[in-house]
Amino acid sequence: MSQFIATLQKNSQQKSTSVNTYQCLLMAILVIFCWAVSLAYLLSIDISNTPSVNFLPAILLQTFLYTGLFITAHDAMHGVVFPKNARVNNFIGSVAVGLYALFSYKKLLKTHWQHHQNPATDLDPDFHNGKQVNFFSWYFHFMKKYWSWWRLAGLIAMFYLGSYVLHLPEKNLTLFWIVPSILSSVQLFYFGTFLPHREPVGGYTNVHKAQSNPLPIFWSFITCYHFGYHREHHEYPNVPWWKLPEIYKKSQSL
To answer: Above 70 in pLDDT, residue 16?
Structure first.
């Protein structure tokens, strides 16, 4: 299976030559850099005497940047972060999902390609089980498949390391590290799985069993880095996230 995935990823890399590969690399580095700088700043400020609700904009911003980490890793899974060098491409993907929530890039790579090969079927690890089809039950069914006690233990250890060794305030860690990562998982699920892959009235109309949610460019970016153009992503998995609106526009003009 790993060899098969490597071949698929290599094919995506070869098809990505029409995109400036260094632009893709710089975009990935920029997303990771913005997340790191934002988090470092938010963990350093004194918020002890300020109501938590006042920091809602900062929480939403950090949620958006967390989502960007995963989207960056997702592009790496398709070999488009740095098509010229698979090792660099996969290293950046590993860093992004590691920072996101200590995920194993190798395992996510395998399940993501299973999703692309068998969308909205029993073999799709991201699909519901035929019973838990509403948003909340599907979300928890989805999250259980990626649950890991070892990863949870690692995250808890990091929390207490930050609190007791680095002396970071627990309120800051909770509001700007824990809460945004959880909200990001909801955002990614809603815009990247639930909306595009739920069965529409009348049934699926294409082999990818995916549909797009073509919001205006700004809102498409804010909601989930243009991941709402999901049918286009399945049809052109070698295209980086910021090019998806362009692909959608071209498909509508045909």
So the answer is: no
Sign of dihedral through CA atoms 81, 84, 88, 91?
Answer: positive
Handedness of CA 234, 235, 236, 238 (dihedral sign): positive
Tokens standing for residue 246? 């362009």
84-85-88-89 Cα dihedral, nearest 10 degrees? 60
pTM assigned to the model: 0.89
CB atoms under 10 Å from CB of 70, counted, come to 26
Mean predicted confidence (pLDDT) in 12-16: 47
- Number of domains into which the chain is organized: 1
List, for residues 59-99, the tens digit of each pLDDT value.
999 999 999 999 999 999 999 999 999 999 999 999 999 99
Within a domain: 217: no
- Domain assignment present for residue 50? The answer is yes
Cα–Cα distance for residue pair 252/254, rounded to 1 Å: 6
The rounded distance, in Å, linking the Cα atoms of 245 and 228 is 9
Distance CA 245, CA 252 (A): 11
244 domain-assigned: no
In the block, tokens 């929390």 appear at 159
d(CA 24, CA 239): 10
